Amino acid sequence: MSNQSFYSLNTPLFGTDGIRGKAGDLLTAAFAVQLGFWAGQVLKSENTVPGPIIIGQDSRNSSDMLAMSIASGLTSTGIDVWYLGLCPTPCVAHITNISEAIGGIMISASHNPPEDNGIKFFNAQGIKLSTAISQKIEEGLRGELPLSISQENSWGKILHKDNLINDYYDFLKRNLHPSFNCRGMRIVLDLAWGASVNIAPDIFNQLEATVFSLNGEPKGDLINVNCGSTNLKLLQQAVKKYKADLGFAFDGDADRVMAVDNTGKIIDGDFILFLWGKYLMQKGELPKNLLVTTVMANLGFEKAWEKLGGTLIRTPVGDRHVQAKMLESGAKLGGEQSGHIICHNYGMSGDGIQTSLQICSLLQQSETSLSKLVENSFKAYPQILYNIRFKNRNSLSHWKDCTALQEGIQIAEQAMKYNGRLLVRASGTEPLLRIMIESECFDTAQYWTNYLIAIVEKHLDVI
């Protein structure tokens, strides 16, 4: 069961959010079968009580292939698979947590383009797998773990359990105030042709909102293409066209959401965290007035939160890091600027649909518009994000060894000093080098962004 032919031993298999890559390249049926086998072996060894593994997927054309292949690997270890079909990632996490399952798997590449796919793993509590367990699965794929196959020919079964998705509906509604409804609210939903196409419109309709849906069918060749949480132009136009109160854009697996207010302004995860955090703080439901976010969070957000008497902790990018710091610190609310929000008052997973419902609840109780709430929150520093695509991950891996780039970063940091921030990092899921610069002055941020881009393009192997 060694998998050495599938990937370079020098390249980590698990990134910031599971395994991700182009379908048919790394993510083949043969690879997924072996991954399922070793995931089954490791998860069985980590749980004293046997149980099934939950599998859900998004709408990508390759998701059926990967879901059934990894299910085959799992059943070869004697584990039953409960297959949910099309559903959001937080649905898989929730069902895993409340059932006797020993783990959960979501087949999705989140916000990535249609040709990509990914495999996300959850432990029995519905939390992303720890680095230690992920590494054990990798060791199995490399042939570094002992092989353990039952001699009893006890194979697992694949059981279709899409009825369990109803439990996720109940969970979302249970977390709202009993008297809450969206009556009178006009809401636009950009469903990104992905995993939220059924659940999100249904629950907002049940809550009596007037719903306008964009990209509302499960189309795997269109998922995230010029839409969803990474491209809000269509949503902004639709909010104005339909004179809506607000709009929400989900990514392909609906574990994150970005909002647009009634004026068409984009409301990112920083503003969502600030508004939701302030609301929980006022209710006395935010321990230590603590928020956890990442190094990408805007400096204006941080200063405004501290002015309220709150504390903000930053982690590396990735909801796995946010989740770990929340558990360590006792924080109840955390998330990322990209719209991946986790609230332990209600669940253990980042959840775009739950976040959007909570924003609507907050608006109802504050009796004002989202634009007014944002206007009275904080002023974000101008922030420029720029992605430089490399030919492959191996060429990207050399960026830290580039002397010219490291010297350029030091020069930019010294020039901005306390009036701005700079972050250069490699993407954990794509062959991209991400440059983030924020400053009180936009022109300053733009200057140093262009400065670093020029160095990267001159000295490194970019496309």
Automatic annotation (TrEMBL):
InterPro entries: A-D-PHexomutase_a/b/a-I, A-D-PHexomutase_a/b/a-I/II/III, A-D-PHexomutase_a/b/a-II, A-D-PHexomutase_a/b/a-III, A-D-PHexomutase_C, A-D-PHexomutase_C_sf, A-D-PHexomutase_CS, Alpha-D-phosphohexomutase_SF. Binds 1 Mg(2+) ion per subunit. The modification Phosphoserine is found at S110. Residues 386-440 form the Alpha-D-phosphohexomutase C-terminal domain. Activated by phosphorylation. Its cofactor is Mg(2+). Catalyzes the conversion of glucosamine-6-phosphate to glucosamine-1-phosphate. Belongs to the phosphohexose mutase family. This is Phosphoglucosamine mutase. The lineage of its organism: Bacteria, Bacillati, Cyanobacteriota, Cyanophyceae, Oscillatoriophycideae. The gene is glmM.
